[in-house]
Structure prediction request, 183 residues.
Amino acid sequence: TPVSPMAGGGGGGARYGVESVCSEDDCASEARSHCSSASEVTNATEDVGGETTDEHANQEDVEDKLKDFIESTLDKSVKIRLAALEGLRSALSRKNLYDFLTERRVTLTDSLERCLKKGKGEEQALAAVVATLLVVQLGANSEGEECFRTLQPVLTSILVNASASVHSRQSCATALAMCCYIS
Prediction:
């Protein structure tokens, strides 16, 4: 029988052999269990790889929609511009899109500037919110500061314009405050 060195019997540090209590059937069963576990790990890894492919496809879909939204901010129809701004607001609020936005920051900034200058009321308010989210996403670096420097004069002019709607002035004030804080 196996005896533990800690059991207190003689030998002070002598090593004792341990007999295997595993029959051939038990050992084979345990080996199959280990193989099964390895198979599960492989399947889990494959599932993660599949999710990565799905995520990549999903990311491309999101980017395509964002490109459409950016283009639609230049549309003649106010309804289409508002829908595009709302789509941009929603996307920028939910997902980190730094790389996508860095590549298109000038185009998006120009589109927002146009919406702020030419738009009225709700469009200006929504464009100010999107401008804030853009600067937040770009961060406190040269890209974010450049975007803010471009939009700051327009946001300020709407803020001090007494004939502009209260909602658009409020959104511009918030945008200026947030962008100043970040930059």
In short: Helices lie at 24-72, 78-94, 98-118, 121-138, 142-160, 166-182. The domain at 60-182 is CATH 1.20.930 (Transcription Elongation Factor S-II; Chain A). Confidence is low (pLDDT under 50) at residues 4-20, 33-49.
